[in-house]
Amino acid sequence: MSARNISLAMVSMLAVLVAVGAPADPGQRSQPPRVDRGGLLKVEPIYFDSAAQTGGDFYFWAPGEFAGSGLRIPLHGEPVVLAYGSFDKPRRSFEIPVESGVRTLTVFAGAQRKDRAVLVRPGGAIVAAGEAGVQLQTFTHMTIATIQKPTPGLWRIDFEGAGLFSVSAHVKPSAEASAPSMDDFDFVEMGGRPGHEGWFPIQRELFKGQTITCQLEVSGAVSSVQLALVTGDDRHIATVPMDSSPGDGEHRRGRCPIPSVPFRVAVTGRDQLGQPFRRTTSALYTPH
Q1: Quick check: is 14 in a domain?
Q2: Distance, C-alpha 260 to centroid of its chain
Q3: Residue 224 clears pLDDT 80, i.e. is over it
């Protein structure tokens, strides 16, 4: 396991504060409350920042927990939600669009202090351990859910806690050619010799306040495709309409305003049955 996918946070003391009046995680093992300053697990910021930059899961292990955890590391598919940051309020909710025919949905939620992490189905039912097709792993600071053949629609994870957090959602899409796929994304500019001009990825830094042509390549039976710029903790910055290139339905271009903060690119749309889909770039873009 590489530092990108798993980080072991070792400390001598740990506090787990239980959220008063909030339902426990379905299937959550009870944890004895232990108190340390602020109730936050100590972590190595360099490893957390590395995960945030690359889109890897950061594992928040309590002291001695990993050895007896029986962890079953989920095999991730295409990234749908990637969010890394600090709780600025006790609760964050993240929508997870799941298109038709998805074979597996994996959701990871971890924090320096996890009070509650609940995965909610499109119809409003809470995912619980023991349900058919559900593998739910709960730890002091993390919840990891793997759902086989998830119902298409808008899923949601409600996450309560404090300190640094990491949330990710991935799908293993349908094997059908009609399944949505984000094949490529680039910031581009015109180039080439006379008579052979074309759009080429830029070979320079991104600067705050610029507006640059961006090119998206998608495949599958998709419609209503839009591009969004989001912060590292998955807050919306801007929506960019994308036009299909003449004679090429897979390439779309738009004009992207470069924000003043690190950002990811998220693509949204509808599949052939009208269900929502979303994909996001793994790496953060950091403008200068």
Answers
A1: no
A2: 21
A3: yes
pLDDT of residue 20 exceeding 50, the answer is: no
Of the listed ranges 47-56, 98-107, 153-162, 246-255, the least confidently predicted one is 246-255
- CA angle, 239 then 240 then 244, to 5°: 145
Residue corresponding to tokens 């507006």:
211
Same domain, residue pair 74 and 192: no
Identify residue 120 by its one-letter amino acid code. Answer: V
Q: Are 202 and 224 members of one domain?
A: yes
State CA 162 to chain mean position distance: 19
Q: Which of 191, 155, 193 is nearest to 171 (CA)?
A: 155
Tell me how many domains the chain contains.
2
Torsion of CA 188, 189, 191, 195, to 10 degrees: 100
Q: Are 40 and 15 in contact (CB under 8 A)?
A: yes
* Contacts of 20-26 spanning 24+ positions with Cβ under 8 A: 22/115, 22/116, 22/160, 23/116, 23/118, 24/116, 25/116, 25/117, 25/118, 25/138, 25/143, 26/118, 26/126, 26/127, 26/128, 26/129, 26/136
Let me know if 69 is exposed, middle or buried by CB neighbors in 10 A (0-12, 13-18, 19+). middle
DSSP strand pairing (236-241 vs 243-245): unpaired
